[in-house]
Design the sequence.
C-alpha cells in the first residue's frame, strides 16, 4: 500500500469530473419534481443518452454533436414518460420504472456494435495563464466545456426558480396543480416541458460518462447514477446548490475509492466499489432537512383537461 501515490491535485480535479454526470441528472430531476412529477426513469434516460451520444460522436467525429444527440435521446425517451403520465394518466412510479427498464434494454441493443471503440476526444478549454496558477489552475482550469456547463446549469436553474415568473409558475404547479389550473395555467404543458428538460439533462449526464469520464461504451455503464440522483434531489430538499454539494460528495468518494484501489489498499475491491453509494446515502440522510420542502403535488396525477 502506497498512499503517497495519490496526487491531491489530480484527486480534486478527478472528483469534479466524477460529479458532473450526477449534477446534470439531479438538476434535471429537481426541475421535474418541482413541477409535481416524480420520474423514476432517470437511469433509463441517462443510459439512453450515453449510447446516443457515444454512437453519434463515433459516427460524426464530433463530441459536441454527440452531446447534442444525447440530450435529444434523453428528451425523446422522457417524452414517452410524459405521454404515459400526462396524457394516458398512467401511474408515475410504474411508468418511470418501465422507462428505466426500456432504456437499459434499448441501449444494450444499440450499443452492441460499439463495444471496444474509442470515441473522439473533447478537448479542454484553454484558459491560458490561469491554468498555470499553482494549485488552483490544475484543479479548476483544466476541464472540458461540459463540466463548466453543468455548474452554470445549477446557477441558472436556481436563478430561474427563485427570481423569474417562469420559476414561480413552475413552483405553483408543483404545489397545487388545481389552483394553478384555476388561474389559467396549462398544467400538463408546463409539466411536459419540465419532463423534457429533465430528460435532456439526464441524457447529457449519461453522455458525459461514455464520452469523457469513461471514454468507451459498456452495457449498463451508468451503474446506478440515476438512482443516486433521485435520492440526492430528495435529501437536498429540492435546492439546486445543495444538490451540487451532494454531487461533489458522491464524486469525491467515488474518486477516493478509485485512488485507494490504485494505491493497493488491502480492502476487497467490491467493498471499495460500493462505498460511494453507501456513504453518500448515509451522509445525505444525516444532513437532510425537513422533507416538508417537497412540492405538495409531487406524484399526484392532474385529471382536469387543458
Sequence:
Amino acid at each position: 500500500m502506497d498512499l503517497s501515490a495519490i496526487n491531491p491535485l489530480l484527486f480534486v480535479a478527478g472528483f469534479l469530473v466524477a460529479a458532473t454526470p450526477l449534477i446534470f441528472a439531479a438538476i434535471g430531476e429537481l426541475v421535474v419534481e418541482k413541477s409535481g412529477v416524480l420520474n423514476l426513469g432517470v437511469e433509463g434516460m441517462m443510459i439512453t443518452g450515453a449510447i446516443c451520444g457515444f454512437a453519434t460522436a463515433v459516427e460524426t467525429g464530433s463530441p459536441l454533436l454527440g452531446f447534442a444527440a444525447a440530450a435529444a435521446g434523453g428528451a425523446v425517451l422522457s417524452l414517452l414518460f410524459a405521454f404515459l403520465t400526462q396524457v394516458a394518466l398512467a401511474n408515475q412510479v410504474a411508468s418511470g420504472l418501465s422507462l428505466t427498464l426500456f432504456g437499459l434494454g434499448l441501449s444494450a441493443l444499440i450499443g452492441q456494435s460499439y463495444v471496444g471503440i474509442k470515441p473522439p476526444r473533447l478537448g479542454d478549454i484553454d484558459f491560458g495563464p490561469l491554468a498555470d496558477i499553482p494549485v488552483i489552475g490544475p484543479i479548476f482550469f483544466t476541464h472540458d466545456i461540459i463540466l463548466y456547463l453543468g455548474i452554470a446549469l445549477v446557477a441558472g436553474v436556481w436563478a430561474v426558480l427563485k427570481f423569474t415568473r417562469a420559476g414561480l409558475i413552475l413552483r405553483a404547479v408543483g404545489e397545487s396543480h388545481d389552483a394553478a389550473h384555476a388561474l389559467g395555467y396549462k398544467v400538463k404543458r408546463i409539466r411536459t416541458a419540465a419532463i423534457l428538460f429533465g430528460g435532456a439533462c439526464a441524457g447529457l449526464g449519461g453522455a458525459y460518462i461514455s464520452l469523457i469520464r469513461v471514454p468507451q461504451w459498456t452495457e449498463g455503464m451508468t451503474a446506478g447514477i440515476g438512482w443516486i440522483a433521485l435520492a440526492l434531489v430528495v435529501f437536498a430538499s429540492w435546492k439546486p446548490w445543495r444538490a451540487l454539494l451532494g454531487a461533489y460528495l458522491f464524486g469525491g468518494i467515488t474518486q477516493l475509492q478509485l485512488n485507494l484501489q490504485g494505491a493497493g489498499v488491502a480492502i476487497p475491491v467490491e467493498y471499495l466499489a460500493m462505498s460511494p453509494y453507501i456513504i453518500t446515502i448515509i451522509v445525505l440522510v444525516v444532513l437532510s432537512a425537513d422533507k416538508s420542502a417537497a412540492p405538495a403535488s409531487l406524484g399526484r396525477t392532474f385529471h382536469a383537461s387543458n
About this structure: Residues 154 and 241 are 7 Å apart (CA to CA).
